[in-house]
Amino acid sequence: MKKYITIGCLFLLIGACQETKSNFELPILGRTKIISKEVNGIITKDTISHRIADFSFVNQDSTTVTNSSFKDKIYVADFFFINCPSICPEMSKQMYRIYEKFLENDHVRLLSHTIDPEYDTVAALANYARLLGVNSEKWQFVTGDKQQIYDIGETSYMVVANEDDKAPGGFIHSGAFLLIDKERQVRGVYDGTVTSQVDLLMRDINKLLTSYEP
Amino acid sequence: MNHNYLFFFFLYFLIVSCNSYQKPAESYLPENLYEVSQTKFIQYLIQGKILYISKCSHCHQHSGEGFRKLYPGLIKSTTLMNDIGPAACIIKYGTKGMERVPNLSISMPAQAELSNLEIAEILTYIGNSWGNQMGFISVNNVEKNLVNCTSH
Predict the structure, then answer these.
(1) By CB atoms within 10 Å of each CB, which of A26, A33, A38, A144 scores lowest?
(2) Which of B58, B68, B106 sits opposite A82 (nearest CB)?
(3) How many CB atoms lie within 10 A of CB B91?
């Protein structure tokens, strides 16, 4: 009898562990800001989580892309450039895996920023997307003001992107993939050149999608 | 007695070191080669593989299959198979500014730092791997072809 109880307890324990694991929520990344505001003469404090700043870029179809283009969508963002000889080919390959997996899911979008807007014009990006064979509603390649791209990379997505003559291809940048939720918050950072990291990202996308289900 | 052991040890060492000298598994090696040229061929294959992995495989992939239409595959590639001339030029000087079918793929960067020997090694590896059977591609052959490159 005692034996059965022990085994029963063990099962319960294991079950409970798994339960907590699958319910584990994705963190909200970035520094939270505390702002104080005056309401009716009383100063109150409010915490605001880190969010992606307002942006306006142009995609491969010459369409303007802003934050509202991703309204009610979760998206994966990265930074690349077409003539990048080092890590970008692998990033594109990994991003394409995500594209294929979530092609039918309208809640998921992909956003690739070029960090070489001088060379990666709208026409060049359109050609790149065509050769990759992806539809522009799902996967947007954007270009725009160089400084704005570098700024949003550094301050909103918290990745490195800059010109560097010494780096292969003339730019230094991170191969990170960022998972952004519907509230413009960063929910995960993954190495876009490592298959297992992208596997994890795809699991986290599903997890994030589940959290929005009623 | 002691000397005997030493001798066997050396013999064993020799055999082991010979054995570790094998061509890359997926590569083609013509059978009717003289011993000397076979050794040279294998050296090219091995060096070529090392260079291919560090310089080419990011885009063309480890097994030469390429990726989508962005990076063309190198298996049974007609550009490569017909004549090594254009292939040698593309490796050395890239495809920027080259006359080619427009929008076929994105342009390939130049690898100007590669020596003629290194290009011959890479071409020998690509030309005899994954089902390709082009045979040995010598430095002289590469050198001769690089003179005729149209864009550099």
Answers:
(1) A38
(2) B106
(3) 24
